[in-house]
Amino acid sequence: MQHKVEIEKNVWDPLNIFHVTSDYKYAVIILNSPIRLKNNLMFQLWENAQVTITVDGGTHRWLNYLDNEGIDIFNGNYNKYVPNLITGDMDSSSKCTIEKLQDIGSKVIMTPDQMFTDYTKALMELNIHAKEENINLNAVYVIVENFGRFDHLLGNINTLYKSGKIIPNVQIIQIASDSLTWLLKSGFHKIRIPSILLQGNNWCGLLPIGAPANHISTTGLKWNLDNGLMQFGGLVSTSNTYDKCPEVTVSTDVSLIWTMGIEPLMDTENC
Known about the structure:
Elements lengths: L1 H7 L2 E2 L2 H4 L7 E5 L8 H9 L3 E5 L2 H11 L16 E4 L6 H9 L3 E4 L7 H15 L6 E5 L6 H17 L4 E5 L3 E6 L2 E6 L2 H4 L5 E4 L5 E7 L8 E3 L6 E4 L6 E6 L3 E6 L1 H5 L4
Parallel strand pairs: 1-9, 2-3, 2-6, 3-4, 4-5, 6-7
Antiparallel strand pairs: 7-8, 8-15, 9-14, 10-13, 10-15, 11-12, 11-14
């Protein structure tokens, strides 16, 4: 129950990603982006998830990742790597492959509505599935790299802004090979900073995308704000870092994007 209490208080702990515990319930979503997580982390996240989803071309990304590890899920020996759900408009996936996955246990949900991105629709379907299966999720880990088409990157950020209405009271964290990104809604937040990130001036940033933040205060950063203003065309907090404090606090009047580098966490097993 500890994690549920923390989430209600807007406490964010990146180490939940690396040190999976039985009382922390999460889903994994793989988008159509190269998977560059190390296999020990990727497999840990997948194997301990309550729900696993591949999204359209993300299905092939997952199969290719498995193939590079010498895993063929169609031979009957690796059922744990078969996605629970496959969603999307399927314009980036092979019909034959999707049907083969359906035959070995995946639930395939076509989501052709072009008014929403496949990422957004995947969260919608996850919310329905979690309710049907009575799964109380603490978090959703979205595997996606932060490069490629700029409109796709902004579409992913837009989905983060929508996520609270799609799947309420669940932390949505985008995981890349070198960073974590999530949305801080208006209010007060605490972010626990792993000690290894305090040792090397690792980067972090706060971005007021879509609307100015007129009243933002922070602690724990090298360059803090005290009831300050952030907006595009003015001040934004990029290339910031930590002041050696194990906790960052953010008080904001609007939603902000928080992003942080995690390369040292990726390079060590003792994180």
